[in-house]
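Lay summary. Proteins are chains of building blocks that fold into shapes, and those shapes determine what they do. In this project we predict the shape from the chain. Here is one chain we studied, written as its sequence of building blocks.
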Amino acid sequence: MAPSHNGADPPLDDSLEHLAAEVHACRRCPRLVEWREASAAAPPRRFQGEDYWARPVSGFGDPEAQLAIVGLAPAAHGANRTGRMFTGDRSGDWLYAALHRAGYASRPDSRGSDDGLRLHGAYVTAVVRCAPPANRPTPAERDECLPYLERELALLRRCRTIVALGAFGWDGALRALRGLGTPAPRPRPKFGHGAEVEIEAWTLLGCYHPSQQNTFTGRLTKPMLDRIFARARALG
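And here is the predicted shape, written in a compact code that computers can read:
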């Protein structure tokens, strides 16, 4: 059963394709526009000569998904380069490999938007759509982007489970659900790896972000990541 959006459904003429086109054209945050374009203009040596996307990045995946994965923002030389969320960087290597092991992804890696990867039952997105300096969007930038996440969740009509990657993803997911008329219980649920909270028809799961800071130090391991997606699969 799909969750009720409590009167916050998107307009009848809205669609994920229409929303993606809006996201790609967005220039609301001057600092982020400057940073994403500057990153594309001065890439590291390993990416020199590549044609960067250098625009906001829309979500990616199955329109009939029951699971949404919410990250922080595109990486400057990852999704800002490839145009697909969590593609072309080490975090994406971990995420898509785990999704493949869990049966959500058709292949264990994601190198570019034309690599043939397909997601089955899952949709990958983020709170902020442009690469931010130092991976730190401001609260104002987060709030400018939140309506995009709200609309995505509303359009994913079969989605019942959200995996939030990191505390920023957790906070953004709670804010987006509140925007859809589903406020979090009080006291406000705290983020943690494996944290789980039911918010009306939704279930929110916390997962450490698969950043190198977490994977290189062993704070997040493959078995830990696999258990999160096994739990998401069990929730249906």
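What the prediction tells us: Residues 16-235 form a domain with the Uracil-DNA Glycosylase, subunit E fold (CATH 3.40.470.10).
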